[in-house]
Design goal:
By secondary structure, the protein is mainly alpha-helical. It has one domain. It has 8 helices and no strands. This is Manganese efflux pump MntP.
Length: about 180
Amino acid sequence: MTFRSLFLIALALSLDAFSVAISVGLNNAIKRNKKIQFVISFAFFQFFFAMLGSYGGFLFNKYVASIPEIVGGAVVSIVGILMLKEGFESKKQHTLVKPGMVIILGISVSIDALVIGFTTLNNMRNTLDILYHTLFIGMVTLILTSCAFIVSRYLRKIHAVSKYADYIGGIILIIFGIKMMLF
C-alpha cells in the first residue's frame, strides 16, 4: 500500500472522530483533562480496531461488513439525543463527563476502522507492516481530534454557539450518526 493510499484511509477514518470531537469540545463542561482522554481514546481505538480487523478480516469480512456502521451510528445518535435532552434540562452533570463516555464514543467512532482492517489491511502478512499502518491511522486520528478540540475552543467564543452548544453538538451528533448508519 502506498503512503498516499494509507494517508487517505487514515484521514477518512479520523473524520468521524474529528466531527465528534468538535461536538464534544463545544460543551463548556468538558475540561482539558477530559479532552485529552477523548483524543487518546479516539486514537487508540482507531489503531486497535484497524489492527484487530487486519488480523481477523478474512474470517469475518462477509458477516460483519454492514453491521459496524449501523452500530456506530446508533451509538453516536443516542449520545446526540442525550446532549439535546441535557440542553432542555440544564443538568449539573453532562452526559459527556460521565465515566465510560470516553470509551463508548472512542469505540463508536472507530468501528469503521475494524471494517477497513477487514477489507483493506487484511492482505498484509508482515506483522510490522500491519503495526506501521495501524499506528499511522491512530496518529492521524490523534492529530485531527486534537485540532478539532482547538477549533471548538474558538467556536465556543461565539456567543450564539456557546449559548446553544448542547443543542448544536447534539444535532451534529444525531445527523452524523444517521449518516453513519445510512451512507
